[in-house]
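Predict structure. Input: non-specific serine/threonine protein kinase, 822 residues.
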Amino acid sequence: MGPRILVFLFVALSQVCTIPAMTDEADFTALKALKDIWKKVPPTWVGADPCGSRWEGILCANSRVISITLASMGLKGSLSGDIQSLSELQILDLSYNKGLSGPLPSAIGDLKKLTNLILVGCSFWGPIPDSIGSLPLLASLSLNSNGFTGSIPSSIGNLTSLYWLDLADNRLTGTIPVSTATTPGLDLLVHTKHFHLGLNQLSGTIPPKLFSSEMKLIHVLFESNKLTGSIPSTLGLVKTLEVVRLDNNSFRGPVPSNINSLTSVSTMFLSNNNLTGPLPSLTGMNVLTYLDMSNNSFDDTEFPPWLSTLQSLTTLVMETTQLQGQIPADFFSLSHLQTVDARNNQLSGSLDIGTGHGNQLALIDLRKNQISGYTNGLGGEAGVSVILADNPICQETAVTKSYCTVSQPNSSYATPPNNCVPASCFAKQHSSPNCKCAFPYTGLLVFRAPSFSDLGNITYFSVLEKSLMNSFKSHQFPVDSVHLSQPRKDLSQYLDLNLQVFPFGQDRFNRTAILSIGFMLSNQTFKPPAQFGPFFFIGDTYLHFTGEVRGSKKSSSTGAIIGAAAGGSVLLLLLLGAGIYAFGQKMKAEKAILQNNPFAHWESNNGVGGVPQLKGARCFSFEELKKYTNNFSETNDIGSGEYGKVYRGVLPTGELITIKRALREWMQPGLEFKTEIELLSRVHHRNVVSLVGFCLERGEQMLIYKFVSNGSLMESLSGKTGIRLDWVRRLKVALGAARGLAYLHELANPPIIHRDIKSTNILLDESLNAKVADFGLSKLMGDSEKGRVTTQVKGTMVNSSITSLHLHNTIISNFFFVGRKL
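Output follows.
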């Protein structure tokens, strides 16, 4: 090793040893306070630099803690108010730690940048603090499976960015809050897609005001509460609904006649209430798969013919619904039908399931009716379990037919070995589907509204296993295989499945892997196959981490000998490590340059100028944006125009972004696009929307901005967002917009004239601060001049009196427009 190399390694080693602490002091103090009151924190939680020394479960950016994910770590203790000091925190996931208890501190409301609050399957109790409504960026609120009491805070209605609301399986009481002249309510959550409030003790009626046609809800899960009154007809206005569960309450009166306008609903539970009046017609609900209206007091009704028109139906549960007459044979010919449960009615005549019944049919349970004959004796021979016990046909002397006994189809399932012989494993280890002994990560998968009922159909579970593995692989998690077992329906008609996740390449997981898998399941990153519906996961505490096995005295002694022998080589190892570190840092720096600036290798003679000079913006790959927007899904589509579509996305940090995706006919030449991103990256003002980055890949041109949570000024003025703009707020908006425009006109480098200012181009953030948008070099919509743009860089126009006058008038008109609209 030459002298120069030795000098280099010595300098590198010196730099490694003198790296200053990376963690913000206030953040470290807060984490230390949490560490002091928590038991069983990860063993890497040592030292005074959580960011620099990489405390497991802690993610940092610019020396600030932005994420805490500690699922299934076995933590014990409470959550103290010290959490409020983590002012940059975006994600807090403490799920599956049953040892965490106590009240949720009101200081949680000080985490203004929090986007994901996930406390699934802990033991927190007490009221949900009203301050939770002070989290303007919160997109996911998952507090299910705890012991929270008290009422649902009306302040949750302030969370206009909320996508996921899950308060199920607690002990919440009181009514469902809706807005008044002075207080917010859940009716203001027009962009929320999930209302999961089941398994509580909520009372009172469902306020008709709760639902409106502006809502984007897909799940309304209010099952197993103490709700009373009638089902509001406004429910029928929410055309986006896919799953409705109102069962196990005390609803009374008729079902609204417009319920069949919910043509996107696949699963509907209205069972175990006091509903009266005629059986509702569900004609036109062509994607309905699972229908349960059992145990109500409907009027006596002949078996309705519209049931035979529901071509997607898999499951019909109509126990004690006052059905009469004969079931038509053509009903059983529905191709997807699996289960018919119409016990305890007045069905009569002869049962004929026909010879052309659907091949998925598994169970017909007609106990306690008035059926006198069975004209098609297929029964068990055709794989269909028919139960006619307590009918006249089974009361004849010496009847021994199988259909006169009660026997349910066998639904046992366990993932089979993958063409191998299961291994014989030590205690607490399990043989994986690939026949390897290991310590799996275990837990319970719970599906709240599956669209199928035949648990003996193993195809469903094979598809779920494949979906889980694909998700783990796409995130590059070290997972070898998954094992599902014991599918069963619980008292809430949820589908429960035991899950085991096996490690890849070794017999146990490290903490990073468990944290990653736990977060993927708690944060709903994993999307199960559609037929399984909404789900949650309750993970067990993992006890067998890599490198944390307690040894005997012998192993400790062996470790000491090895440590002593290794001591003589410490200096050499440090020097080698320093060299590797320096080389690694160089490679990381080069990789970062390529990731953040795809133009790094542009040549000056490529026809579009030299390398773009960007300030604060980065490049996103097409695959990244595809991932952040759920494959540019319709649910992430938040607007469109002649120029293209606008999508909402979520970065891995939890930060919300807006993606403007240009249509091909509105894409700009390379030089124009380069000029635009250079210009936009230099615009930084609190009243101007900030550019986060761009994408120029696969023939796409996309601009990525910070998400502005309260939409446009036009939406607020029209009442669409539910925000009341009194004169004080209007003045605040006007001043903010004016400051933003003044910055663009006078202080931006170079100055920018907007030329397309309108109420849709003024956005409002969580504090109702105005932010000027769409000032980039986008073409005028509907303009016949090819290449004309809405924004003009000041000083580039033709120097004529007419143009100067037009420019002057444009600046004045921008300010005039804002004032006039407000």
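Residues 438-539 form a domain with the Alpha-Beta Plaits fold (CATH 3.30.70).
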